[in-house]
Amino acid sequence: MVAAGTALATGHGAAAPAREAVGSNWYAAAPYLMPLDNDPPDAAAVMDATGLKAFQLAFLLAPNGGGCSPTWGGTGPVSSDTAVAGVIATIRAKGGDVSASVGGYGGTKLGQTCGTPEATAAAYQQAIDKYGLKALDFDLEEPEYENAAAIHNEIGAAKILQQKNPGIYLSVTTAGTADGTGWFGKQMLNEAKAQSFTPDNFSIMPFDGGFNGAASQTAALTNFNSVLRSTFGWDEATAYAHEGISQMNGRSDTGEYFTQADFQTVLDFATAHHLARFTNWSVNRDRQCSPPDNNGKTSGTCSSVPQGAYDFTKYSVRFAGATPPTTPPTTPPTTPPGNGGCTAAAYGAGTVYVGGDTVSYQGHTWRARWWTQGEAPSTGGSGVWQDLGAC
């Protein structure tokens, strides 16, 4: 991880000033941004390029050495932070705002180390007060959501914060499965019901679970709607009004692929069914790798699919109800570079290719899914070739 941050303009370690919150539509659309790790992009540049007005900053955790005080990533105490405060100040100076996300996949969570809901809420309140936060996301996933006591603390803390900070926007994010969410996700919903806690939305992450493409994601959202209805007694429309999705742009951790076309399909589903939230992990990854397919690997700093800068972030802007700025078309060179502008080696009929090999053919980049020889890249045939898009 590469730590990076912007010095706080007000100096002396002061908190980023509170400001009037942007509309809840922007908190509902805010994509995740790691402000200190994974080669963070300049937030102001992202806003200029896309029209985005809100980011979901990740992650607030317990200190790596233990304890019940909030840190960024387990290492940066909120109490003495200036780097993240500087990023927040930059975003607010441009008319935007942030939500902070607590939890996530890695590190130790405050729900695990703080002994009670009250202590957990007090830790999060420190961040709310320091940064003047109007929104908070509870990203409850493994291994924390397998710990009943920790989830009791997290849900209890969320309820306390909701009562103590009137109007705060709260989202709860958890793992997605083909049937909506798994056993632990359902237990988390039952905990929320038992504590009479209702956030602005419950969001699932339909990736890293055997998903591939938009159809599998919208099917999971449909099934999650049924889970919400059966848990809380809501009708279909009410359940959708409390339901959200958090996607992963490009190549997922487990090798699933979600393209711009998949995001558009899910966006169409979300708007048609009036979902409450549409976000993704992450802005840090919303840029093209070099080579574009990243040699078939997943990265925290690029998407591993062909794309323009911040292509996926622009879908969040559309969900919020805004139109992304138009990117001026680039003028193609008079004489294209060799091989039609492709960087991968040209396909050879006599060459043996194995899974993961990439080639250029008819102006597109293709990746072999398995061993092949003598079958030219196409979207038909045996299906051995995956079209990664035009060069």
From TrEMBL:
<dbReference type="GO" id="GO:0005975">
    <property type="term" value="P:carbohydrate metabolic process"/>
</dbReference>
<protein>
    <submittedName>
        <fullName>Chitinase</fullName>
    </submittedName>
</protein>
<keyword id="KW-0378">Hydrolase</keyword>
<dbReference type="InterPro" id="IPR017853">
    <property type="entry name" value="GH"/>
</dbReference>
<dbReference type="GO" id="GO:0030246">
    <property type="term" value="F:carbohydrate binding"/>
</dbReference>
<feature type="compositionally biased region" description="Polar residues">
    <location>
        <begin position="291"/>
        <end position="304"/>
    </location>
</feature>
<feature type="domain" description="Chitin-binding type-3">
    <location>
        <begin position="344"/>
        <end position="388"/>
    </location>
</feature>
<dbReference type="InterPro" id="IPR003610">
    <property type="entry name" value="CBM5/12"/>
</dbReference>
<dbReference type="Pfam" id="PF02839">
    <property type="entry name" value="CBM_5_12"/>
</dbReference>
<dbReference type="GO" id="GO:0004553">
    <property type="term" value="F:hydrolase activity, hydrolyzing O-glycosyl compounds"/>
</dbReference>
<feature type="region of interest" description="Disordered">
    <location>
        <begin position="285"/>
        <end position="304"/>
    </location>
</feature>
<dbReference type="InterPro" id="IPR036573">
    <property type="entry name" value="CBM_sf_5/12"/>
</dbReference>
<dbReference type="GO" id="GO:0005576">
    <property type="term" value="C:extracellular region"/>
</dbReference>
<dbReference type="InterPro" id="IPR052750">
    <property type="entry name" value="GH18_Chitinase"/>
</dbReference>
